[in-house]
Design brief:
The structure holds 2 protein chains of 2 kinds. Chain A is an alpha+beta fold. Chain A is built from 5 helices and 3 strands. A 3-stranded antiparallel β-sheet of chain A has the order 1-2-3, with helices on one face. In chain A, helix 1 packs across helix 2 and helix 2 packs parallel to helix 5. Chain A starts with 10 loop residues before the first helix and ends in a 21-residue tail after the last helix. In chain B, strand 5, helix 5 and strand 6 form a beta-alpha-beta unit. Chain B folds into 2 domains: 139 residues, Aspartate Aminotransferase, domain 1; 256 residues, 3-Layer(aba) Sandwich (Aspartate Aminotransferase, domain 2). The chains are: A alpha+beta, B alpha/beta. Chains A and B meet through loops of A and helix 12 and helix 13 of B.
């Protein structure tokens, strides 16, 4: 069997998967985005409360998918809860893979980078008239 | 009274030494169990050798040359076409068109036959279990022509709901596009019932044989399909070659799809006349060596015998159903084993298919997670992804046992944390 550092399903990853940080809705959501990994159907939605000073007052996610995509979402939300928009912009894809920790094959890196992609888009996606903007429900047929 | 036909039992261990890749070990020293054959199969030395020989001894472009290599290459390429004809029992060799795959073949029909025959309001009847390759080309045709897409629904058991077929056929669709075997459910569709009913309603029938031609006997003429498509790489041949079979009068009436070299009889500066079949639909340099490799794969398949292949896969599927059904929480998509081919797709509640496939990979077992290019079908069953094990002639009962053990371990791994 593979050695520990190669093991994707490390305890802290499974902990995030089983008991995620801030999975749910953001009460005072100002920014929101959702997207999916078209190859495997992982789905992640991010809801943010960004104040006038550019601080992420609250960050929540919701979604459906594999252990990697959901645990990565939880880690990312935990990291940026209370941080700034500027810090999100500085956070690269490589940073995301490092945050996740376990070594991933290219196909599974896509699962890990999905929440990162969604967060990067969410900071540019203000919610209008109390109705979340976002990409809409990807399971619905586009009109 | 005739004695029941005893099918020859296939011994996969007799064939495995022909497939070098099957003895590979992964993740250190774990033996590979390759159960991803519905995506693509492996190829035996005989096919690999035919490819090497073609390049080392016979290769040149086909048809136009006069020199020795051009003659040899052409003879091998056209020999492969005859092997395909014989495999699918096509009446003539001109009805076998080499494409770049099953997808390319369906797109050829949609562009050539579809664009010149369909008009606004005309119907194309598909099924809810089609691969995207047999859906999206028809969506695109509908966008171009204003044709409308309707579908035969799938029952909870994973069968086509043929009770709905008569009502759908009263709309007089121009084409019924149906898969012979579902790449997710494994369902073997009753083409002998569907095709005559479609014809009686005035529709043509395109059969997607990607999952059937490699695994069971196909008789295109007897089944009376108007079009039949399949791919080389799912039957031990190389990727990059596929086949379109069509009824002769249909193919002759259809305009060429791609334009270029080979597909012409004469060209003037401002016009052209097309070549005869099959070259009319083979513009540009064809997949020469992939077709030769496919011919070698057909030789191999004929030596093993397609009846024996089908029976072997049926038994493996039966065993996989037994083992997976014993694991609490595992649900298998699709019908009973006696109604299906060697494809077993399953899901395990909230354990995502990617996590199943990842755990299985660490035990050397290659299965495929995802929607398998059949998103509407997964939506129908309200699952985002399944894990799919699919068999071929070289798979063993030991591998199926390993699959069962690994799935049970996977369930235990994710469950112990709750």
């Amino acid at each position: 069997m593979p050695s520990n550092e190669e093991e994707i399903y490390q305890e802290h990853i499974l902990d995030h998967y089983e008991d995620p940080y801030h999975r749910g809705r953001c009460e005072h959501c100002t920014h929101c985005h959702e997207d999916e990994n078209p190859l495997c159907g992982d789905h992640v939605r991010m809801e943010l409360h960004i104040n006038d000073g550019g601080n992420l007052r609250e960050v929540y996610f919701d979604g459906d998918g594999c252990c990697i995509s959901q645990a990565a979402s939880s880690m990312l939300v935990e990291k940026f809860d209370g941080k700034t928009v500027e810090e999100v912009k500085q956070f690269s894809a490589d940073d995301m893979l490092r945050l996740f920790g376990a070594k991933l094959t290219p196909n599974r890196q896509k699962c890990c980078l999905l929440p990162w992609r969604v967060l990067q888009a969410a900071i540019y996606s203000p919610v209008h008239r109390g109705r979340p903007a976002g990409a809409g429900d990807p399971s619905k047929k586009p009109s | 009274m005739t004695a029941p036909v005893r099918l020859r039992t296939l011994d996969p261990h007799a064939y495995r030494p022909d497939f070098p890749i099957l003895s590979k070990r992964v993740h250190g020293d774990v033996p590979l169990a390759y159960l991803d054959n519905a995506a693509s199969t492996q190829r035996p030395r005989q096919v690999i050798q035919a490819i090497v020989e073609a390049y080392e001894e016979h290769y040149a472009n086909v048809h136009r040359g006069i020199h020795t290599l051009a003659e040899e290459s052409t003879a091998l390429f056209e020999g492969a076409r005859e092997k395909v004809r014989s495999l699918i029992h096509a009446p003539t060799v001109e009805q076998v068109i080499f494409t770049h795959g099953a997808t390319a073949a369906i797109n050829l029909v949609a562009r050539s036959w579809g664009d010149s025959n369909l008009h606004e309001g005309d119907g194309v009847l598909v099924t809810e279990m089609e691969h995207h390759a047999n859906l999206v080309p028809w969506h695109q045709l509908a966008e171009r022509t204003g044709a409308k897409i309707q579908f035969i629904p799938v029952t909870d058991d994973g069968l086509l709901d043929l009770d709905k077929l008569d009502a759908l056929l009263t709309e007089r669709p121009r084409l019924v596009a149906v898969t012979a075997v579902s790449n997710v459910l494994g369902t073997i569709n009753p083409l002998a019932e569907i095709i005559p009913r479609a014809h009686a309603a005035g529709a043509l029938v395109l059969v997607d044989g990607a999952q059937s031609v490699p695994h069971q006997v196909t008789d295109a003429a007897a089944m009376d399909a108007d079009f039949l498509v399949f791919s080389g790489h799912k039957m031990m041949g190389p990727s990059g070659v596929g086949v379109l079979y069509g009824k002769r009068e249909l193919l002759e009436s259809m305009p060429p799809f791609l334009g270029g070299g080979s597909m012409i009889r004469r060209v003037w500066i401002d016009s052209f006349t097309p070549a005869d079949l099959p070259y009319k639909f083979e513009a540009g340099t064809p997949p020469i060596v992939p077709a030769i490799g496919l011919g070698a794969a057909i030789d191999y398949l004929n030596d093993v015998g397609l009846e024996a292949v089908h029976e072997h896969e049926r038994r493996l599927t039966q065993r996989a159903h037994e083992l997976l059904s014993e694991i609490d929480g595992v649900r298998i998509l699709g019908p009973r084993p006696d109604q299906k081919a060697g494809i077993v797709s399953f899901w395990m509640g909230r354990i995502h298919a990617h996590d199943i496939a990842q755990r299985l990979d660490r035990r050397g077992i290659a299965v495929r997670p995802g929607h398998h290019c059949a998103m509407p079908l997964h939506k129908r069953f309200d699952v985002s992804a399944t894990a799919r094990a699919s068999f071929y002639l070289y798979n063993t009962f030991e591998e199926v046992e390993r699959l069962g053990e690994a799935v049970a371990e996977c369930k235990h791994f994710f469950q112990r944390r709750r």
